[in-house]
């Protein structure tokens, strides 16, 4: 078992859970957090026993952003040479569906990390924001792009230009989060969602994630073609035959590939 210093990792059934654990810095994302989250998530991604991943933080903070103290003294050549935080894209590229359980602050890189997941469950007191403008910079882990694609220009400009925090109710209204629940139910609900996903056919859930993700990358006609080809390809799996037979026979499907 790999030893981690900034995250806690556990497995329950077919769900792998990663909890950000830098309480003194409100889970600010430094390079160690990034390396550890990606190492743990990549291991879950490669594990045939895991069908979904939950990513969570603490009651006070999912993550309060990139580590400002780590970045403060960096200059442009250092940022550029390190291609600073580019590695987070490996997290966005995971095949396994990821459910975020967000309580407290999801700010800056924390909001951007949540947006790299596939389903966001927020506690009612959660706060989302892209406050980088207050530091004299802009979002750098996808905030200007993923937020615009998920909630549109009006709310993205509002959040990115003013740096204001939005609450969970507004985040749900604008389509940034999937569900809002009582604060003490966030992790339980996210785990339930992950268990639901993990109980299904793995080729189907992974390809569904890939198909939806492609909607943010391609033109409509290319995306529709990609979706249709994936749909066609699933007819080569035993799970398609089983899923459709089970429906006709009015029974639960027994998935071969999980
Ligand atoms: N980085 C480093 N330390 C942090 C961060 C952070 N982002 N956020 C909080 N902390 C630390 C505080 O410094 C404090 O430490 P200490 O006790 O040693 O002083 C501790 O966590 C507790 O924080 P507060 O005392 O401030 O707690 P409050 O409850 O008073 O306030 C807030 C909570 C409102 C969340 C406040 O901490 C805050 O505003 N934090 C900063 C939020 C922010 O600006 N986030 C954006 C950061 S920039 C970013 O994310 C860019 C992402 C892209 C990078 C990739 C580039 C390529």
From TrEMBL:
EC number(s) on file: 4.2.1.17
Swiss-Prot/TrEMBL keywords: Fatty acid metabolism, Lipid metabolism, Lyase
First-tier enzyme category under EC: lyase
Keyword Chloroplast: no
Pfam families cross-referenced by the UniProt entry: ECH_1 (PF00378)
Record's keyword annotation contains Iron: no
A molecular function (GO) term: enoyl-CoA hydratase activity
Reactions catalysed: a (3S)-3-hydroxyacyl-CoA = a (2E)-enoyl-CoA + H2O; a 4-saturated-(3S)-3-hydroxyacyl-CoA = a (3E)-enoyl-CoA + H2O
Record-level GO BP terms: fatty acid beta-oxidation
Coiled-coil regions listed in the entry: none
Sequence similarity: Belongs to the enoyl-CoA hydratase/isomerase family.
Function summary: Could possibly oxidize fatty acids using specific components.
Protein name: Probable enoyl-CoA hydratase echA8
Annotated source species: Nesterenkonia alkaliphila
């Amino acid at each position: 078992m790999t030893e981690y210093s900034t995250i806690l990792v556990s497995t329950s059934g077919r769900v792998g859970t990663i909890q950000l654990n830098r309480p003194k810095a409100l889970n600010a994302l430094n390079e160690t957090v990034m390396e550890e989250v990606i190492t743990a998530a990549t291991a879950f991604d490669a594990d045939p026993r895991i069908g979904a991943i939950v990513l969570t933080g603490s009651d006070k903070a999912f993550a309060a952003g990139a580590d400002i103290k780590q970045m403060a003294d960096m200059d442009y050549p250092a940022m550029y040479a390190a291609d600073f935080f580019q590695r987070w894209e490996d997290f966005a590229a995971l095949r396994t569906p990821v459910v975020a359980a967000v309580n407290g602050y999801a700010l800056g890189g924390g909001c951007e990390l949540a947006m790299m997941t596939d389903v966001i469950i927020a506690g009612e007191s959660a706060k989302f924001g892209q406050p980088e403008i207050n530091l004299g910079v802009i979002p750098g882990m996808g905030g200007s792009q993923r937020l615009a694609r998920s909630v549109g220009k009006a709310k993205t400009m509002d959040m990115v230009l003013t740096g204001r925090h939005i609450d969970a109710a507004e985040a749900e209204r604008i389509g940034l989060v999937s569900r809002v629940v009582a604060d003490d139910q966030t992790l339980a609900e996210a785990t339930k969602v992950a268990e639901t996903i993990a109980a299904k056919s793995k080729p189907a859930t992974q390809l569904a994630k890939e198909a939806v993700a492609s909607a943010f990358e391609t033109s409509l006609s290319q995306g529709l073609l990609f979706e249709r080809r994936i749909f066609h390809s699933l007819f080569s799996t035993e799970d398609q035959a089983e899923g459709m037979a089970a429906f006709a026979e009015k029974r639960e499907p027994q998935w071969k590939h999980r």
